[in-house]
Amino acid sequence: MMDDVEKSNVQTRSSTFHTLCFILATPLMVSVRWTSLLNVSDSKASRTSGSKASGTSGSKASGTSGSKASGTSGSKASGTSGSKASVTSGSKASGTSGSKASGTSGSKASGTSGSKAAGTSGSKASGTSGSKASGTSGSKASGTSGSKASGTSGSKASGTSGSKASGTSGSTASGTSGSKASGTSGSKASGTSGSKASGTSGSKASGTSGSKTSGTSGSKASGTIGSKASGTSGASGTSGSKASGTSGSKASGTSGSKASGTSGSKASGTSGSKAYGTSGSKASGTSGSKASGTSGASGTSGSKASGKSGSKASGTSGSKASGTSGSKASGTSGSKASGTSGSKASGTSGSKASGTSGSKASGTSAYGLVRRQDIKTFQKKVEPLRPGGKKPVTIHSLSPVGKVVEIAILPFT
Known about the structure:
Layout: H1 2-38, E1 112-113, E2 116-117, E3 120-121, E4 124-125, E5 128-129, E6 132-133, E7 136-137, E8 148-149, E9 176-177, E10 180-181, E11 188-189, E12 192-193, E13 195-197, E14 200-201, E15 204-205, E16 208-209, E17 219-221, E18 224-225, E19 228-229, E20 232-233, E21 238-239, E22 242-243, E23 246-247, E24 250-251, E25 254-255, E26 257-259, E27 262-267, E28 281-283, E29 286-291, E30 300-301, E31 304-305, E32 308-309, E33 328-329, E34 352-353, H2 372-382, E35 393-398, E36 404-409
Parallel strand pairs: 1-9, 1-21, 2-10, 2-22, 3-23, 4-11, 5-12, 6-13, 7-14, 8-10, 11-24, 12-25, 13-17, 14-18, 15-19, 16-20, 17-26, 19-29, 21-30, 22-31, 23-32, 26-28, 27-29, 33-34
Antiparallel strand pairs: 35-36
């Protein structure tokens, strides 16, 4: 009999102890759950930082930003213009580099323009390579212009190199323009590579101007470099450099574009990449594309590479300009990239647009800590529904492994 009473007392004490533990632990559990909500980013947030990144690049990047970043998008995504690459873009130099990845700054054609290579694209020279002229230098062709080779393409010359034709100036092609190589093409120099001109370098056309080669991937000029067109400049197809391998210039000496005059392309209409010292061009004046008509690309412009694009060297990398650096467009602008940027400018760096600027992504954010301002916004939305309300709050978010996690706040009175 005594044994039964003693067992009953033990059970009662044990039950009481468990009840007290549960009562004390419940608020703690709810508190932990509520705290965890503040560590879950909003599922409507963007996975890709882009212009909102202060470290990585974008139009709002103040550090390593400038014209480009990541997967290497420069100013534009697929709309107007810019450089796009699926891996790493930017300038990496072994000396003082800053040469542009093939797609000559402002390569424009109505078909597909720019440098396309399955390997490495650019010009190779062991001495001083590129076009040198005291008059007017640049590529002029009346048909399909650009260097096409199945082996190694680019300008290799120990003297004066560069193509001149008396037809339409610039790479203006309704088909495919630019340098195409299935082998290895690109600017590789152990000395100084690029085009040098003491007069006017680049292509000029009063009709349609295509490849604004001057200032392209290592051109140096003491005069005016770039292309000027009073007609329509730009591409309705895909412009820029596309490479499935590694594109850009590699130099152990000094490579890149330097201009003491006006270099690049400018447009008074809809301008694609108005790069003032875009991704590797060094200019003490103003660099970009000039056109009095419509400049840019209505398709996809810029350099696209599925491998690695940009210039590589082991010294000072990035684009340096004493003027204004970055991409400007009157359409939809902003750097969209999720990778690493390497443009440096002493002037104004980043993407500027008079239309819609910045990068926008509609992805789903990953699990992680959120910033204070995000927590405030989060609290405004969830605060009225936190514990003590009538209905439980269920929030779906992503775990670190990408699986949907359901977090519920249990109401209690």
